[in-house]
Amino acid sequence: MNGAESLIRTALAAGSEVCFANPGTTEMPLVAALDAVPAMRSVLGLFEGVCTGAADGYGRMTGKPALTLLHLGPGFANGIANLHNARRAHSPVLNVIGDQATWHLAADAPLTSDIESLARPVSGHVATSARASDLSGLTARAIEAARTAPGCVSTLIVPADCQWEDADEALAECSPPARAAVDEAAVADAARALEAGNAATLLVGGAALSDRGLEAAARIAAQTGCRVFIETFPGRQERGAHLAPIPRLPYFPEQVVTALEGTKRMVLAGARAPVAFFAYVGVPSTLTPEGCQPVEWPLGADVEAGLEALAERLGAKPVPVAAGERPEVPAGAKLDPATLGQTLAALQPEGAIVVDEAATSGAVYASLAGSAPPHTTLGLTGGAIGQGMPCATGAAVACPDRKVISFQADGSGMYTLQSLWTQAREGLDVLTILCANRSYRILRFELGRAGIVEPGPVANALTDLGNPVIDWVSLARGLGVSAERAETTDELAAAIRRGLAEPGPSFVEAVLA
Amino acid sequence: MNGAESLIRTALAAGSEVCFANPGTTEMPLVAALDAVPAMRSVLGLFEGVCTGAADGYGRMTGKPALTLLHLGPGFANGIANLHNARRAHSPVLNVIGDQATWHLAADAPLTSDIESLARPVSGHVATSARASDLSGLTARAIEAARTAPGCVSTLIVPADCQWEDADEALAECSPPARAAVDEAAVADAARALEAGNAATLLVGGAALSDRGLEAAARIAAQTGCRVFIETFPGRQERGAHLAPIPRLPYFPEQVVTALEGTKRMVLAGARAPVAFFAYVGVPSTLTPEGCQPVEWPLGADVEAGLEALAERLGAKPVPVAAGERPEVPAGAKLDPATLGQTLAALQPEGAIVVDEAATSGAVYASLAGSAPPHTTLGLTGGAIGQGMPCATGAAVACPDRKVISFQADGSGMYTLQSLWTQAREGLDVLTILCANRSYRILRFELGRAGIVEPGPVANALTDLGNPVIDWVSLARGLGVSAERAETTDELAAAIRRGLAEPGPSFVEAVLA
Q: ω into residue A468 within 30 of 0, thus cis?
């Protein structure tokens, strides 16, 4: 067995069963190893950002690190933006990057570069193989690191000779993933903090956003009278009318300040203390109210069980769920963020996975989705655009029995549209709803926030996607996905119904008025 | 004047007149500054790899660093692969990357990351602004670094508050770019080395690949009987029937070993000593014949003048040019790399800029282009695929009076197809010839070279782009570029003639049998 095969077999034995790949010459022995170990499923992406975003989506849905197989520094670099998102979402991912043979590095051949320097900013764990015989052990350690709660991106750099040279037959094993309990004192601290009632805020995030965690949070809030929020950009959140509504913490920092005003005590369960997404003149950077020392549970702890223990300790009883009324499809309306959001919330099926990179076009939908049947939503935790379509691709590979709805803004969608080809090739059950507002709309807001109330021609041009108009139907079809265009709610509803009824990928461009 | 405006004005005063941009919230003051300084041309790319590849192409054609304007670590990361190519081609580029405000960095907001760690592997110069008043000076130093021969990528990280705070009205100036002469002793060393006649090899590259440099190299070879080669992947090379043919050093290392066999002395004029692109078992890493100590002129020296001085010293006379016969369009033939190459070489106009990322489909063309009228070719020096379309975009911005031919492989083309939208938006005079062999053909060769003579289903799948077939005509039209498909030489010739006759972008998908 060579090093490459020992790597693949070690990963497979640890439960990593999918490899999102865009290999090159320095990964040929790994490609051969994928043929030797067919239980590892190989999925080709035509751009590395597709592979890394797919691994992120896969990791969020399964809790298991998928492999990415990437070609040297430049190939890895193409995947960094979506690894940044994976890092912020604490998704387990194992990057496998081929490098020049150890004895060829010094020649500084054209494709050689400092891969570790590129990898560190997005990786919780980085290792470089020195010989074939270390590869199984390094792979096991990298997977253990990726699976260590709350999860991280692991990166393994594998020179070509370490792949092709002989390795030991014996494979290293991974310790099983574990999540420490929230200790009793931390639960007690939280209970004391929440005695402040409306002057206390419970902020939940990460692993707390399961049905169990959210049910416990709602009970706790009802019992104590505390405020409760979900972190602004959850990596993964269960949603739907089966859960008591819990608002998300708003996006803009002034809104957060208002939402938290009067908070004297705060409990962070799976969430970090709130900070501004961006800095603005005269606006604070960290958003925890002054003088408030949060009770912060470790991100890697079992915060679901911790919330349940906290609810028990407080004597909190189950609360009746009063979800908002589910909207109906607004008949015969032009599409705008409101009618679009109503239409999607009205039609999405039970068990859907909604990958939400709809940006400004998705705000109304996000406020309505709590009225829809139980579903999972995956968000843009790291803020690096171009995540949605790859993430949807990986989620569909992870959960072939669930419908994936890729709810996508046009500006962000242009970053990684190659994903559609992989969806077509693999027959993935993804319905893409592409929100075409033909601008970087969020930047129009941000110009105003930066004091640029009358943008000049350059500012307008640099936020305009309408010249020329992008024909998304043509793009989707060019990549092998059947597609149509909708300009009214009726057309959109018909397209969504068709997409939901048929297996495999479909695409609708929703043109916003 | 704020820091942002001082940056833009400093760059403009130094002769950098174009900014390839994909800004976000942390770059809003720079966007406003671009409005305040309209002489700086702003060109929007819908993905950062378009911006960096365009800056590379612009730098190759003008010798001046264009600016890129990129959003934080993830936005920069999307541009790294093409900056890797720029680095290897010694193209001058000035990256301007917004960062969180200095006082917001510690909050570790979602989009925050270690930008310097990402920047170093592709940058010859990296600096981070600490205050608005340092920005003009840092900009001038970064431009000087980028322009220092042989040229490099400079990266300037600019926290948002350094952009929006007040700066000095006085702007820093750049020292003019200069190129040191090849010193007389080095010319004399080269002359002595070439006395070995056919046992000597002159390898030319970089700035030596101008008309002047190549004419001198041909004279020197004729006078001394030495072998002469052009580096394997030139960043920029003048070509055509006005120049004596000089072969390129081959790609595969065994071929290089054969080409250099018997070489006892070597002169490197603008080129590095040859190394293998990739390592293979039993094949050497560095390809300079054993015992041969090359005479190596500094890459940043004026190698054109150096070669002319060397020719003078050797008493070399002008040589008659005997270019190969220009092919005709093969009538009624199916398209393959040979008929495709003949058709393009037969039709390309004088003064064209041919951006060659045609990979395996372009090998025959490359062997024939020396018979075409005078033109410039830009190559994939760094090996990171996805360069061609962005580079063509930047070359067209740099040289609006020349026709750009973007000769592009399909696998590589999928990396940065967003370029076509920028070409349409700016009305750039680019004819794209997309070579659709529907596979990563080069990897089929590399599988064999790695000893995988009968690839299994995974290896076949991971090198196959034909399932589903990518409809490139649909993609190009979706991005606003008129497009057609060609399956025969007649159809291709007609499409090329139409594309050359009309200004603005056009696209032909050449389907290879």
A: yes
**Which of B108, B160, B452 lies nearest to residue A28, judging by beta carbons?**
B452
CA quadruple B430, B433, B436, B440: dihedral positive or negative? Answer: negative
Instruction: Indicate yes or no: CB of A32 within 8 angstroms of CB of B164.
Output: no
CB atoms within 10 A of CB B474: 21
Pick from B84, B160, B150: nearest CA to B119: B84
pLDDT (0 to 100) of residue B109: 98
More confident residue, A323 or B195: B195
d(CA B148, CA B242): 30
From start to end of A173-318, where are the E strands?
A: 200-204, 227-230, 236-239, 265-269, 295-296
Q: Given this model, what pLDDT does residue B344 score?
A: 98
Q: According to the model, what pLDDT value does residue B322 have?
A: 85
User: Quick check: B434 pLDDT over 80?
Assistant: yes
Q: Which of A339, A80, A170 is nearest to B84 (CA)?
A: A80
Q: How far apart are CA A126 and CA A138, in angstroms?
A: 10
Maximum pairwise Cα distance, chain A: 68
In this structure, the dihedral spanned by the alpha carbons of residues A467, A469, A470 and A474, taken in order and rounded to 10 degrees, is: -140
The 8-class DSSP code of residue A379 comes to -
Predicted confidence (pLDDT) per residue in B258-279, tens digit: 999 999 999 999 999 999 999 9
Instruction: Let me know: does A420 contact A389? Beta carbons within 8 Å.
Output: yes
| pLDDT surpassing 80 at residue A323 | no
Q: How does strand A236-239 pair with strand A375-378?
A: antiparallel
Which residues of chain A lie closer than 8 angstroms to B74, CB-CB? 80-81, 84-85, 382-384
- Mean pLDDT, range A419-440, rounded to an integer: 97
Q: Which SS3 state, helix, strand or coil, does residue B44 take? A: strand
Contact B111 A384 (CB under 8 A): yes
Residues of B in contact with A24 (CB under 8 A): 443, 446
Q: Which residue of A has its CA nearest to B285?
A: A104
C-alpha–C-alpha distance, residues B509 and B420, integer Å: 13
Q: Judge contact between A280 and A274, C-beta under 8 A.
A: no
- Per-residue confidence band for A54, with pLDDT thresholds at 50, 70 and 90: very high
H-run or E-run covering A460: helix A457-462
pTM of the model: 0.98
Report all structural domains of chain B as residue ranges with CATH numbers, in order of start: 3-164 (3.40.50.970), 184-313 (3.40.50.1220), 337-511 (3.40.50.970)
Kindly list the strands in the beta sheet with A227-230, ordered across the sheet, starting from the edge strand earlier in the chain. Answer: A227-230, A200-204, A265-269, A295-296
Q: Given a cut of 80, is residue A487 above it in pLDDT?
A: yes
**Amino acid letter, residue A429:** D
C-alpha to C-alpha distance for A76 and A17, rounded to whole angstroms: 21
Read off the pLDDT band of B323 (50, 70, 90): confident
Q: Closest Cα of chain B to A448: distance in Å?
A: 10
